[in-house]
Design brief:
This protein is an all-beta fold and about 100 residues long. Helix content is about 0%, strand content about 65%. The strands form two sheets. Strands 3, 4, 5, 6, 7 and 8 form a six-stranded antiparallel sheet that branches. It has a two-stranded antiparallel ribbon with strand order 1-2.
């Protein structure tokens, strides 16, 4: 977190992450995918702007972050890549998120 007096940093673990969406083909090899998702995170340590090292967070609690966006996918290799696994020939670009 950026503040006028410095930056606060927190580190933790994602306990759960869920994302759902729908692939909508718009042209040959091009797909638009609207999605929504949520992440449950538990922050464990922090370094506040006034501190020089990380310290344990007291009173830890689970934080939930919601996100939504639009994912654009396109076929990189076209018909040449039909023999390849689909996931290895699809590139994704995040347009809107978090």
């Amino acid at each position: 977190m950026n503040r006028p007096e410095g930056r606060d940093s927190r580190h933790g673990i994602d306990l759960a992450r869920v994302q759902v969406g729908v692939d909508v083909p718009v042209a040959a090899g091009i797909t638009i995918s609207p999605f929504v998702g949520a992440t449950a995170t538990l922050f464990l340590i922090q370094q506040l702007s006034s501190e020089t090292s990380f310290s344990d967070i007291q009173g830890r609690k689970v934080n939930v972050f919601l996100n939504a966006g639009l994912l654009g996918r396109f076929d990189v290799l076209g018909s040449v890549g039909r023999r390849l696994d689909r996931s290895s020939r699809t590139a994704a670009l995040l347009i809107i998120g978090d």
